[in-house]
């Protein structure tokens, strides 16, 4: 896609408090340097979107926004070879995928 001038960053990570419970798998998508605009966040397993979209309405402000969205991974996807990413979609043309990937087990 076209180069985007902002320095929006998207990071995916396991949610540590949830990880310690051991009976759930929750991922966090941390997004920084976002402009004020409507957007939605999706999570992917092996590059395929989960159907759930998390819509966010950012208020207008002078500075960039940061936000975190959480997603509970269905047990059907608790597999050692699955890798998870998150993606931010803003407007019709801008999207950012997390630069990192996480696995639920190991690493």
UniProtKB/TrEMBL annotation:
Residues 2-103 form the Ig-like domain. It comes from the Eukaryota. Pfam families: C1-set (PF07654). This is Ig-like domain-containing protein.
